[in-house]
Design goal:
By secondary structure, the chain is of the alpha/beta class. Helices cover about 35% and strands about 20% of the residues. Helix 1 crosses helix 3 (about 60-70) and helix 4 (about 85-100) packs across helix 14 (about 335-350).
Length: about 375
């Protein structure tokens, strides 16, 4: 196995790109990453995408973006793992480079969601749940997370207002991210008064659907400094799964897939949660932020919300999260979000996060979740 490093990154602004197609968004992120890596061509292209068939009437997305980008002839595949699609594409790229099958791999996450009506978007998102036992019964991603949040509040005695720091922190960080969708502060009062979606989840608990694309270029670490003086090593890449349906879970309030994925990554990297300088977690909903912090070992069971209430998730806290706005404020282009996380972690490790820079950041962790915890991809990145 070879050491693998990230030598280039690229991203588009997250938003409502009604004037840009799926292929254009993917190309813009890919072109930016290739330019950053000073490369003209790669050996393979892996494209993470969750909803191109349902929302863009388009499959075969890998070949489509390769062709549009002038890379006709390269290996190019679409990778689907619901909301974890982008990080899954990165995982495949990592395997290809580490295993010596390729020297240079582009991993793109791209999603185009806002052209469709909200009902169509929700139907597409529900495909990440159990089709027979959840989606067919009318459960949506919002309502599934509402069930988790209600149970969490009941079991640990928290109130709805206690979840506000997750959203407030994300929006405060997004202000300094030029690629973020919602660059504005929100207050705890605004959080408390937000429009309800599925009680107890409100608009400010939920990340907004969006369009966007992000990309990283992977290479063997032995070659990395030929292309950049700021390579970032992929210290670990790990995937784990859990049941798709919540009703089959061992414990409703334990994200076992996230825990197993994190444990694999920590073991591979030879580190533990105390070594991590920042954590780009999957904050599709505030409840997932709390459960992810607990599953990954940054907080004890039932203490994820307490960590936020104590200010430990802020940029200067013990474990900064969503340092560039996260899915909540940067926006959540579903199958692309995992690579936005990785791009933002690379910016931190390169010292390029501007006003949001985490001081002396050396190790960053990202965790991308598909469904309500069914597929979880964890990456640990290192400044070298």
């Amino acid at each position: 196995m070879r050491d693998v490093s990230i030598i280039g990154i690229g991203q588009t602004i997250v938003g409502e790109h009604w004037d840009k197609s799926l292929r254009e968004l993917g190309y813009y992120a890919l072109a930016a990453a290739l330019k950053d890596a000073k490369l003209a061509r790669v050996d393979a292209l892996y494209v993470g995408n969750a909803h191109s068939g349902a929302l863009s009437d388009q499959e075969n997305v890998g070949a489509m973006i390769a062709d549009f980008a002038g890379l006709r002839g390269v290996e190019a595949l679409k990778i689907e793992a619901a909301g974890a699609s982008a990080a899954a594409a990165m995982r495949l790229g990592y395997i290809a480079v580490a295993g010596g099958l390729c020297d240079f791999v582009a991993c793109v996450g791209v999603e185009k969601m806002t052209d469709q009506q909200p009902s169509t978007q929700e139907s597409a998102l529900a495909m990440s749940a159990d089709g027979d036992y959840e989606a067919m019964q009318g459960l949506t991603t919002v309502s599934l997370n509402a069930l988790l949040m209600r149970r969490y509040m009941h079991e640990y005695g928290y109130t709805k207002a206690d979840f506000a720091p997750f959203a407030v922190n994300a929006h405060a960080n997004a202000i300094n991210n030029p690629f973020a969708m919602y660059r504005m502060n929100i207050s705890p009062k605004q959080f408390a008064e937000a429009k309800p979606l599925a009680d107890p989840i409100s608009m400010f608990d939920s990340s907004p659907v969006a369009d966007g694309a992000a990309c990283v270029i992977l290479a063997p670490s032995a070659l990395a400094r030929e292309f950049t003086d700021r390579p970032v090593r992929v210290r670990a890449s790990a995937v784990a799964t859990d049941t798709v349906g919540l009703h089959d879970r061992r414990d409703l309030l334990s994200l076992d897939g996230a825990a197993w994925s994190a444990q694999k990554a920590f073991a591979a990297a030879g580190v533990n949660p105390n070594d991590i300088d920042l954590f780009e977690l999957h904050d599709g909903f505030t409840i997932m932020s709390a459960l992810s912090l607990e599953a990954a070992g940054f907080a004890a069971r039932g203490k994820g919300v307490e960590l936020a209430l104590n200010g430990e998730i802020r940029l200067g806290g013990r474990i900064p999260i969503t340092t560039m706005g996260g899915m909540k404020a940067r926006g959540n282009p579903a199958g692309a979000s995992g690579l936005y996380q990785i791009v933002e972690a690379v910016e931190q490790l390169r010292g390029e996060a501007g006003a949001n820079q985490v001081a002396n950041a050396r190790l960053a962790m990202t965790q991308n979740i598909g469904g309500s915890g069914a597929t979880v991809v964890t990456s640990i990145l290192e400044r070298i």
